[in-house]
Amino acid sequence: MNLRAAGALAWGGACAALAFWLAWHHPLSPAAALAGCGLLLALASWRPARWPLWLLPLLPLIGLMPWTGWLVVEEFDIALLGVAAGVLLRMAAGWPGAAPPGRPAACRFWPVLLWLLPVLVATLVALQRGVADAGGLAWGWWQGYREPLNSLRLAKPLFEVLLLMPLWRAACQADAAGAARDLRRGLALLLLGVALAVLWERLAFTGLLDFSSDYRATGPFWEMHVGGAALDAVLAMTLPFAAGLLAEARTPSRWLGAAAVVALAAYAGLVTFSRIVYLALPLGLFVWWALRALNRRREATPAR
C-alpha cells in the first residue's frame, strides 16, 4: 500500500468512526441516523464519482435542530462524514487509478489551496479566540451561542469544504465532464429543495401572494432566527447553475424541469425582501452569461 492509499484509509476510517459516533448519540433516533449514515457510506463506496449529485440536495432536508436541540452538530454533518468515508475508503482501494495524460486544469487544486490558506489561518485564529473567550474548550451536546463549541460550529463549514476537496479532485480525475455535470445537477436540486421550503413557509405563514406584510422568508435554515444570510447565499450561488441547465436542456421535459426550478428560485429570492438578493441574483446570472459567452468564443476560435 502506497502513502496515498494509506492516508485515504486513515482519513476514511476516522470519518467513518466520527460519523457513526455522532449518529449513535442522535437525540431523536440513533437507529435511523446509523442506518442513514451506513447507507450513504455504502452508496459513496459504490459510486464514488457521483457524490455531489446526491449529497448536495440533502443540505436543506436534514437540518433538524428545532426538534433535536443540537446546535453544534447537524444531520448534514453526519451525512457528509459518511459520504467522505465511503469515497476515501474507495480511494484507498485504488480508485480512480492513475491520472490520464493531460489532466484537466480543474483537477489542479494547489492554486485553490493557496487562496484558501489565509482564510484557514484566519479561521483557526478566530476559533482559538472564540473558544478562549467562552471559558475554554468543553464538550457538550446542548451548548448554545455563548458557549465554546459555537465557535467550532462557525468554523466547521470551512473544514468540511477542505475535507471534500480530495473527493472532488478524485471525481474530476475519473471523469471531469461527468463530475461537472453532477455538480451542476446537485446544486440545481439543492436550489429546488430550498425554494420548495420557502414556498411551504409562505403557504404556512403569509400566503403566496401576500407581499405587504413584513415577514421575510428564511427557508430551511434554522440558524437565521438570529439573523444571517444563509438563504441569500444559497440562492445567489446556485441560481446560475439552474440557469445553465435551462440553457443546455435538449428535451421539453428537461427544459420544463429547469424552468420550474428557476421560477421557484426567483420567487424565493423575491420573498426574502433583501436588497442584497435583488442585486446578487441578476449579477450572478450576468457573470454566468459572460463566462458562457467567453467559453463559446474560445471554442469557436481555431487553434493556431
Topology, element by element:
Layout: H1 3-24, H2 30-46, H3 51-55, H4 65-68, H5 75-92, H6 110-133, H7 149-174, H8 176-205, H9 230-248, H10 252-270, H11 275-300
Helix pairs in contact: 1-2, 1-5, 2-5, 5-7, 6-7, 7-8, 8-9, 8-10, 9-10, 9-11
Structure, explained:
This protein has helices at 3-24, 30-46, 51-55, 65-68, 75-92, 110-133, 149-174, 176-205, 230-248, 252-270, 275-300. The protein is mainly alpha-helical and 304 residues long. The radius of gyration is 21 Å and the shape is globular.
Radius of gyration: 21 Å
| Rounded mean pLDDT score | 91
Helix content: 55-70%
- General shape: globular
Unreliable stretches, pLDDT < 50, 5 or more residues? Answer: none
What is the strand tally?
0
Q: Counting H and I runs of at least 4 residues, what is the number of helices?
A: 11
What separation lies between the terminal Cα atoms? 44 Å
- The helix-strand sequence is HHHHHHHHHHH
User: Oligomerization state of this entry?
Assistant: single chain
Strand content: under 5%
Output the structural class. mainly alpha
Summarize the main sheet: none
